[in-house]
Amino acid sequence: MLGLNTKDTRLLLLVIALTMLAPFLLNPFPVDSELAQFNAGYPDLMQRFVIFGIFAIGFNILFGLTGYLSFGHAAFLGVGSYAAIWMMKLLTMNVIPAIIMSVIFAGLFSLLVGWISLRRSGIYFSILTLAFAQMSYALAYSVLTPITGGETGLQAKISDPRILDSNAGEFGRANLFGLQMSENVSLQVGGWDFTFNAGYYVAAFMMIISFYIAIRIFRSPFGMMLRAIKSNQQRLNYTGLNSRPYTLAAFVISGMYAGLAGGLMVAMDTQVGPERMFWTASGEVVLMTILGGAGTLIGPVLGAGMIKYMENIVSKINDTILHQWFSFMPDGLEDFVVTVIHPFIGKGWHLTLGIVFMLVVIFLPGGLMEGGERIAKLFKRKKGSGSGGKDPEHHPTPKPHVA
Amino acid sequence: MSKFQLNRRSLIKSGVAVGAGLALPTIFTSSARAYLNEPKGDTVTLGFNVPQSGPYADEGADELRAFELAVEHLNGGGDGGMLNTFSSKVLDGTGILGKKVGFVSGDTQTKSDAARASAKSMIEKDGAIMISGGSSSGVAVAVQALCQEAGIIFMAGLTHANDTTGKDKKANGFRHFFNSYMSGAALAPILAKEYGADRKAYHLTADYNWGYTTEQAVRESTEALGWETVNSVLTPLTQTDFSSYIAPVLNSGADVLVLNHYGGNMVNSLTNAVQFGLRQAEANGKKFEIVVPLYSELMARGAGKNIAGILGSQNWDWKLENELGARYSGTNAFVKSFGEKYGFPPSQAAHTCYVQTMLYADAVTRAKSFDPCAVVEALEGFEFDGMGNGPTLYRADDHQCFKDVVVVRGKENPENEFDLVEIVEVTPVEQVTYAPDHPQFAGGDLGACNSGA
């Protein structure tokens, strides 16, 4: 389907199903139950899942395929965001121009940064991109205050010109031809409350397209060339092939993905601040990719979801909630358990994330995807052993026919 | 070709599918409601969004303590604190409008994006009807805009930049804390009195919005009284060593250094300035002086001995009522219940957050509704007393509180770590009041209140 082989089609369909049913999947607990704390199916977080999913997919095209570790991708996200908010201030609150311009501007900026940074590889490349990102952050924070709004950032305001909107002068909301991004429909079944948010589905649609493009890139000759760069760039250069255009193309593509994510962030929440470009934000996407599995298709999306879940759910558990959970225990024990868990919740979510990250890197070097594969293998092997004596590891695999 | 076969299994399956399809339109509830997050049960949820990590985590922790205390008092626990001194008597310790007050807390990380994400989850997931807190103007402006868009009341915590109730003011947002302009207006006459009217000032300003508005405010107020501004230099927010910025000050012909810095910035720049011997220096035949427009107890603690003798302004101080009498009633009641619960006196950040929560609860009770638009109406132009700042007005034009401003000086010989500043004078509210269209606040528009309906 759509130029994909069966396996990839299945993967794409799985992603489509997951994103479309997310409001159900992320809300497994009834609203009034004590576990409702762990529900993640509210619009803002679901939007973040898919937006950072796009960001990570794009980053993975560069890092996962070429092995170039960029530490400055947040700059492209920020540039995309600023482009989008200016479109909303100047043209219209419709999200289409904002999203298109965010991709274009991020692409142009990544072309500039990539053209300079890709002259070096390895750690020097990382440091160069980091320097560019921090420079962009500092510029946005103070020097370019008239354009970026400085620390307070930019927001859509009543007084904005918005020359394409007929209702300029009123308080506008981000919309898609009139459908407001904040529009919600909720479905109440028993104790459950599922919220379907227009903005989420717009973002999810964009993520599915992004994911599809990423699959095509992974399977294309271009993707093969990028993998060749990762495995041995020097050897590739000695064959007389100039690898720079390929790395630059990968860099710009991933920059455009970051820009798209930035534009979508503005479309969902019409506000931009410079912290979006801070180096920790660049580091976060690296973590997402590694946590999920660099070089795999769906891994970065899982990693993004994992980190955003920690940030938004674990950080909101406080001692009062813990006491509620463990109220069945005797008093002394309850206090003890709460004291033990305390450092890992609330503001300690960084610590929890750090531990998870360390465990993954040590025991699952391939990220969460490797964990999934191991589990899958476990089940397959059990099935295989039932069929009598055939050892799959010691049989020649059937070779495909020459196409 | 598939053959159509009717068996029990497929019949049940299709029956369920059809049934679900028919039922679907009826269980989808539309978003029609009186206003967003209308409290339906017997509790009402407030959202306290404070920095729990990052540079202002100390302030955030103190804010959260104050919020918890406020909730306790609203629900009838403890000794009632300021409820006993508050001029409005509608709150009776049975929650708000008979509903028990619950709260959720979140971490702003002192970043606008994180703060908005946290506030959004409070609104969308926890059903918070009001958001309060914050410890930086960038965050306050970002969350205020979010609340305006969503249709929730925002009661700002510690935010001092003019923009919050100036060019970024919003109908759903309210600020009790004072602002840069008020700092300048309160400090200038006292600076002129203490140091003379013919001083030459040198500004070091943190390179972001709050720094700009504070420098402008202090500059305009002091120049109006005859001071001259020799130079002003912007310093990066991430700077930790200010030696290279301090070195040129002595030779610039200035005799006063104004540090428009906050938090760690201020602690570092002040320490550097003292190390360079500016406190002992003389310039233009006068003793060299240092001024810090916005003071806080936590900063004073960080700067230690270096703070001694340095003038600055505060929104509130826990010693106000003891030293200046019953005009500031409420102060002791609050300090007592806070001290009994936590074992030390509250900071001004804690005070403003506590008061904001009480004011919100009071406004809801007077409006007899949680509807944000009714609350806005109840708060606009509201005059109250007994909250520790003396008679106070919530001005309708920009949702800024107008009250006396405290001018303080670092103590030479502090007795303990909580008693680091002495109150020099309290500038009466008339001197710090400005017109709503003052140039430092121009360019904003409140807009209409939004109830999220």
Short descriptors:
heterodimer; A: 403 residues; mainly alpha; ABC transporter involved in vitamin B12 uptake, BtuC; two-stranded antiparallel sheet; 6 strands; 5% strand; globular; B: 453 residues; alpha/beta; Rossmann fold; 2 domains; 7-stranded mixed sheet; 5-stranded parallel sheet; 18 strands; Branched-chain amino acid ABC transporter permease (chain A)
- What is the element string of chain A, with H for helices and E for strands? HHHHHHHEEEEEHHHEHHHHHH
Helix-residue proportion of chain B? 25-40%
In the predicted model, the low-confidence regions of chain A spanning at least 5 consecutive residues are 384-389
Quick one: CATH superfamily of the largest domain in chain B?
Response regulator
Largest sheet of chain B: 7 strands, mixed
Strand content of chain B: 15-25%
CATH class value of the domain at 6-278 in chain A: Mainly Alpha
Named CATH topology of the largest domain in chain B: Rossmann fold
Determine the fraction of residues in helical runs of chain A and give it as a percent range.
55-70%
Q: In which order are the strands of the major sheet of chain A placed? A: 1-6
Subcellular location (chain A): Cell membrane
Pfam families (chain A): BPD_transp_2 (PF02653)
Keywords (chain A): Cell membrane, Membrane, Transmembrane, Transmembrane helix
Region (Disordered) (chain A): 382-403
